Amino acid sequence: MQAGLLGEAIDEAPVLVFVADENRRYVAVNRCACTLLGYTREELLALTVEQVARYGEAPGEFSAMVAQGVHEGVSVLTRKDGTEFPFRYRASIVTVARMELYVSVGWPEAD
Fold this sequence. Notes:
This protein is α+β, with helices and mostly antiparallel strands and 111 residues long. The chain has helices spanning 2-12, 31-37, 41-45, 49-52, 58-68, and strands spanning 16-20, 26-29, 70-78, 84-96, 99-108.
């Protein structure tokens, strides 16, 4: 029951939550991420990190997170309509069911 509650709470959280695999493909996203970026969950799960974070520094920031185990900063995501969405994030590596996953939690960057 606790795992189910935690999953529901994360899906309803007022922050963006992304989980990517070793191929940088999204394997889980929460409702807030879908809503703020204008994608359905299925659409986001068909994308990679680079397809959403299309700015030049994104690959290096992901590599830094992999090398250090944790990374934080400001990123720019691209919404489905092509507009940019700046957000502050904290990302880290976690191991779940013997799989190494990359979890990022973020919130809109203040103007």
